[in-house]
Design goal:
alpha/beta, six-stranded mixed sheet, elongated
Length: 384
């Protein structure tokens, strides 16, 4: 039995009902979606020591990095960026989400960081390419979506603004994935320092024409509370966050926070961190929009490029075949012309021979006629 929601009536077999029944379509979609489950892929990019693993564990209340090994200093000199993929299934109130975390250990850790971006962009393109291949195949019913739906890019709290290495990386990622900037370990900055750093970062992004994930505008029929929440989320970009895997007891209340000599930083206290706003945006309010933007914008751009490349390749192959065909036909024509010339010469020789034979036969025939005429004359004289 489908519960009544949003004024929808429970379906029945009563022929005297005064409604059609399509008001239950949202419930049908909801039931089917819940049964199928959801998929979400999150990429985390940033140099070591900015609290990426801790933040991911805090966001999803898990421990994905319990076997992590911290590299030694000498190992980081020639260290390159690599991809680590971790998957976990989360269920909440009957809704299942298959969460995939793409970590990039080694990013920005080596002395030469010029090619740190290459592994990240290659992985994103590879997932797009795999999805495009599966979508173009015969069995499209059970396509697994491994495309990266969001990239949390971590900015270090030290320094006066965003670094050149980060600008280069963001410039290469902006047209491939939804980027959400995060200032890691923001508890080492005061409120004034955090606001100044945010303004400088946004100014540098604008000067370098780098576009991050754009929050969709609220619909006119949204309630005032949701509109206010949307304005607050947009106003606090980039998110200055603090993560923690430790549960502390403060004033008889258990909180997730960090213990310092001067006090406790409560991760979920909005006066201390933007952690709650980031979690709300990423999971509660904009997860589906991140997936839709990935599908409608980034993947469509990649798909259009693939189709264009396939068309150009097909056109080049067609032109090549045409040139080869013309060249081949040209060779056949030359050979045919040569053979025709030989046949013509042979025919002319045969005609000459035939003419000579005819003239010889004609001459012989005339000679025989003269001889016969001479014999006939002799007989006549004799008879006379």
């Amino acid at each position: 039995m489908i519960s009544k929601k949003s004024g929808a009536k429970t379906p029945s077999f009563d022929r005297d009902r005064d409604y059609i029944g399509f008001a239950t379509l949202p419930e049908q979609v909801h039931r089917k979606s819940v049964k199928r489950g959801f998929e979400f892929t999150l990429m985390v990019v940033g140099e070591s020591g900015l609290g990426k693993s801790t933040l991911v564990n805090s966001l999803f209340l898990g421990d994905l990095y319990n076997e992590r090994v911290i590299s030694k200093v000498e190992e980081r000199i020639e260290k390159t960026t690599r991809i680590e993929k971790k998957t976990m299934d989360i269920e909440e109130q009957g809704v299942r989400v298959r969460l995939t975390i793409i970590d990039t250990p080694g990013f920005g850790d080596s002395v030469n960081c010029e090619d740190s971006w290459r592994m990240c962009t290659s992985y994103i393109d590879e997932q797009f390419r795999q999805y495009f291949t599966d979508e173009s195949g015969l069995n499209r019913r059970n396509i697994q979506d491994n495309r990266v739906h969001c990239c949390l890019y971590f900015i270090p709290p030290y320094g006066h603004s965003i670094r050149q290495m980060d600008l280069d990386m963001l410039r290469r990622l902006q047209k491939k994935v939804n980027i959400v900037l995060v200032i890691g370990k923001a508890d080492c900055l005061t409120k004034t320092e955090v606001q100044k750093l945010k303004k400088r970062i946004l100014s540098d992004l604008e000067d370098n024409h780098i576009h991050l994930y754009q929050f969709p505008e609220c619909d006119s029929d949204e309630d005032d509370e949701f509109k206010q929440q949307d304005r607050e989320l947009k106003a606090c970009l980039p998110f200055a966050v603090v993560g923690s895997n430790v549960i502390l007891e403060v004033a008889g209340k258990k909180v997730r926070g960090r213990q310092y000599p001067w006090g406790v930083v409560d991760v979920e206290n909005q006066e201390h961190s933007d952690f709650i706003k980031l979690r709300t945006m990423l999971i509660s309010t904009h997860m589906q929009d991140l997936k839709d933007t990935t599908q409608d914008v980034h993947y469509e751009n990649f798909r259009a490029q693939c189709i264009s490349q396939i068309s150009q390749h097909a056109l080049r192959e067609r032109n090549k075949l045409k040139r080869d065909s013309v060249s081949s036909n040209g060779l056949d024509q030359n050979e045919t012309d040569r053979l025709l010339l030989q046949k013509d010469e042979e025919i002319r020789r045969m005609q000459d021979m035939l003419t000579q034979m005819q003239e010889k036969l004609k001459a012989t025939h005339l000679k025989e006629m003269k001889m016969n005429h001479s014999n006939n004359n002799s007989d006549s004289v004799i008879d006379v």
